[in-house]
Amino acid sequence: MKKLLASTAVMLALALPGAAQDYTPDPAAKPGGSITVTYKDDVATLDPAIGYDWQNWSMIKSLFDGLMDYVPGTTELRPGLAESYEISEDGLTYTFKLRTGVKFHNGREMTAEDVKYSLDRVTNPETQSPGAGFFGAIAGFENAGAGGLSGVEVVDPLTVKITLSRPDATFLHVMALNFASVVPKEAVDEAGPDFGRKPVGTGAFKLAEWTLGQRLVFEKNPDYWRPGVPFLDNVVFEVGQEPVVALLRLQNGEVDVPGDGIPPAKFTEVMGDPAQAARVVAGGQLHTGYITLNVSTPPFDKLEVRKAVNMAINKDRIVQIINGRAVPATQPLPPSMPGYTDGYAGYPFDVEGAKKLLADAGLADGFETELYVMNTDPNPRIAQAIQQDLAAIGIKANIQNLAQANVIEAGGAGTAPMIWSGGMAWIADFPDPSNFYGPILGCAGAAPGGWNWSKFCDEALDAKAVEADSMFDPAKSADRLKLWSDVYMGVMEKAPWVPIFNEERYTMKSERMGGEDALYVDPVSIPVNYDYVWVKE
Amino acid sequence: MAVYLIRRLIQSALILLGVSFITFFLLYVLPADPVRQIAGRSATAETVENIRQQLGLDKPFIVQYARYLGALVQGDMGRSYLQKTEVAELIRSRLPATLLLMVGAIFCELVLGLSMGIIAALWRGRALDQTLMVASFVTVSAPQFVVSLLLLYVFAVKLGWFPIGGYGTFAHLVLPAVTLGILGSGWYSRMMRSSMIDVLRADYIRTARAKGLTRARVVLRHALPNAILPVIAMIGIDIGIFMGGIVVVESVFGWPGIGQLAWQAIQRVDIPIIMGVTLVSACAIVLGNLLADLIAPFIDPRIRLR
To answer: A41–B264: do the CB atoms touch at under 8 Å?
Structure first.
């Protein structure tokens, strides 16, 4: 094995060109204080192996750490519990050196054994982790179980060696996922299935109180291994709060961050009032809303038909329906994702052109089809706009307005000819282009029950994707992104999707909240990065 | 009495069994796969199958139902699919708030509904009666969300008399209870009105009046106890409805009741929670009705339980 990288700083510079070396917190930040965040739904679980919704994701991030982490407010990797790492020449062995003196909330020091235990646990089928599949590249994953992963070895108390069965350029991102968080065995054993309610980690905050259905209180971890953070003494999460009421309470000074965001019905009002608009932070997010065209059912098996649909949709009008809270999309990747193809205009909005393509396909008189849509606002309204656009080129789309679970079921089973993805749209798990491919556009996801609702499977593109993901060498990062860009351009040529828009994020905060705007539209921690925000008074 | 009680309890058990079977069956045939909700979008096919097996969801319907029932009779309602917490604990944590709101709401419904109904009956056919009956129509058909928000906005945000939602003190209870009281009072007022009108026509009321009793005494002492019987039966049903949760009012006022739990569980296809809440609510309806029937003879001695 060759030492590719000597120090953390050099490594990061190589891993992601132009990356910041590390993060300097706001010099004006003051420690102390408490903030109140509201949510409509109760928190599902705080077990990092289980939690997989946008609400608990950032909460778990603040309670736990993994070997890797992100620079706050960005998509750049930085080391977390690992102090440094080495990648072998063949890209199959990652050796992580751990930080010394990191303590769990229960006071015990974290060691390499804990890292191994945590990875064994998340991949053990008994754990039922929705994220187990992310670790598929680790050697021994197929036989994961009570015996643990053969590919994860404890070299000494501060060194872990992870062997992969295939090179995986996204592996460091995988180690930054919540699913890779380090947990102490004794606390998991003691709590059993209740670990999700009695979480013990190494994170900046620890759980002080959880009154089911009412509130959770996070308390500052005074022994946190990153010096100086967190700033806040407490974060209070109040659950069961209607977003409209949360906004009223924010105006009344009782709430600092409405976790569910600005309710769509109030958006125009808030943005029209300068005093309120000043407290809103806007930013991009790794999201794409799209229509899937099921290539396994006629007439969407014809390329001309799929292209015609792409040209028939007026994306600007759909963006207007959601009060301009998005930008029209041209391709599957969102603009802030590495690998996005700049300068690609996508299919033009061209009704006459679309009609001509339909005529070429022998469907000059149009056809009748079904458009599946989730039944929560604004999705049915968007579906109606799509329906009208399709009617203009002679396609009669009947809207199937269903609950989320039913739409997902129809999509997986392949019984839905068209689906508007709103409410179930893809938001990246980690900021890497590969995350937008495999499950939703690749052959693997096209299997029954998968999330590739177009049932699109192009083996040449799949091969290219595999090639891209084996380019683990950070020095080849630019080449890899170019390859991914080619993959998505290939997808656009085959037109299994109609990319509609990329949603923007709007976070509202109280006047007393401090910290740079990027922390309030952190691409990884939604709605805010709790570790680095602070209060002014 | 004892025989009656035993017979009713056996009937109740059969009703609950039926409810559990129908609910379980409906959730089974629902075109939404709970395993997909648990596994999430990035799960591999193996993960999905593995979870299905561990939860026993690969078994035939009758086996799944028998297993559920077997655990249930031992007091085990299972664990939430997504939260992994015991369903019994989740429901228990919601009970105090649910019961408190139920008591508060039924109190408000009765105060508003009964007084409106009695007044309407006494002034039958006049403008006051018609106004009250129109009002009761409006309140029962008013959208919960609008009424809740309106009251919250006026009395909590603008006037600041009450907290803007939440749970804990008496002040927190007032607005949600009054909201539900207003929304539900129409049922009671209409029922009270017609029942009262029937009773006021009866011979014994005329006799009472002839005896020279005051009108107030006739109405309150002689007419009301008889007229109130159907209302008591209705309280029994109301208890069940409130135990099933009041989704909209609970979420507007941030009230940690059982309705929010049920609503979240339905969205996430969390079958053990849906089953648990349904059964608790069905239990409450059955017991509420039984209680109403048991109380009836004490109010009207002519009624015998058999």
So the answer is: yes
Establish, for the pair of chains A and B, how many residue pairs have beta carbons separated by less than 8 Å: 135
Residue whose C-alpha is closest to residue A60's, from A171, A211, A216: A216
Quote the pTM value: 0.88
* Cβ atoms of B82 and B268 closer than 8 Å: yes
Instruction: Taking the CA atoms of A314, A318, A323 and A328 in sequence, report the sign of the dihedral they define.
Output: negative
Cα B271 versus chain centre, distance = 21
Asked if A125 and B50 count as a contact pair (C-beta separation under 8 A), the reply is yes
Read off the pLDDT of residues B168-204 as tens digits, 9 standing for 90 and up: 899 999 999 999 999 999 999 999 999 988 888 888 8
Residue B272 has pLDDT above 50, yes or no: yes
Lowest mean pLDDT among A305-314, A455-464, B121-130: B121-130
Are the beta carbons of A44 and B89 separated by less than 8 Å? no
**Cβ distance A330 to A344 under 8 Å?**
yes
Nearest by CB: A193 against B39, B44, B79: B79
Name residues whose C-beta falls within 8 Å of residue A19's C-beta, 6 or more positions apart in sequence. A12, A13, A71, A76, A77
| Chain A residues closer than 8 Å to B83 by CB | 42, 44-45, 196-197
A212 → chain B, closest CA residue:
B93
* B51 in A contact zone (CB under 8 Å): yes
Q: Which of residues 111-130 of B touch A (CB under 8 A)?
A: none
Of B51, B149, B264, the CB nearest to A244: B149
Rounded Cα distance, B101 and B62, in Å = 37
Beta carbons of B256 and A213 less than 8 Å apart? yes
Q: Which two tokens stand for residue A386?
A: 């799509």
Is the minimum CB–CB distance between A41 and chain B shorter than 8 Å?
Answer: yes
Q: Which residues contact B234 (CB under 8 A, 6 or more apart)?
A: B187, B188, B191
> Residue A442 contacts by C-beta under 8 Å, 6 or more apart in sequence?
A452, A457, A461, A462, A465
What lies within 8 Å, CB to CB, of B1 at 6+ separation is: B305
| Residues of chain B with C-beta less than 8 angstroms from the C-beta of A255 | none
The answer to whether the Cβ–Cβ distance between B153 and A47 falls below 8 Å is no
Tell me how far apart the alpha carbons of residues A409 and A404 are, in angstroms, rounded to a whole number. Answer: 9
Q: pLDDT for A389-424, tens place per residue?
A: 999 999 999 999 998 888 988 998 999 999 999 988
Cross-chain residue pair B32–A128, CB shorter than 8 Å: no
Long-range CB contacts for residues A54-57, cutoff 8 Å, separation at least 24: A54/A427, A54/A526, A55/A259, A57/A178, A57/A525, A57/A526
Q: List pLDDT tens digits, range B283-294.
A: 888 888 888 888
Q: Assess A212–B contact: CB distance below 8 Å, yes or no.
A: yes
Q: What is the ipTM of this complex?
A: 0.85
Q: Per-residue pLDDT for A15 more than 70?
A: no
A1 or A76: whose pLDDT is higher?
A: A76
- Residue A112 confidence class, pLDDT cut points 50, 70, 90: very high
CA dist., res. B226 & res. A46, Å (int):
56
Minimal Cβ distance to A45: which of B82, B89, B260? B82
Write out the DSSP string of A329-365.
Answer: -SSSS-TTSTT--TT---S---HHHHHHHHHHTT-TT
Q: Where do the DSSP E strands lie in A212-366?
A: 215-220, 234-238, 257-258, 280-284, 287-293, 326-328
Residue A292 pLDDT > 50, yes or no?
yes
For residue A1, is pLDDT > 60?
no
Strand partners, B204: none
Nearest chain A residue to B29 by CA: give it: A406
What residue of B is the nearest CA neighbor of A214? B256
Using a CB–CB cutoff of 8 Å, tell me whether B250 touches chain A: yes
Q: What whole-number distance in Å separates Cα of residue A154 and Cα of residue A162?
A: 9
What chain B residue is nearest to A194 in terms of C-alpha separation?
B85
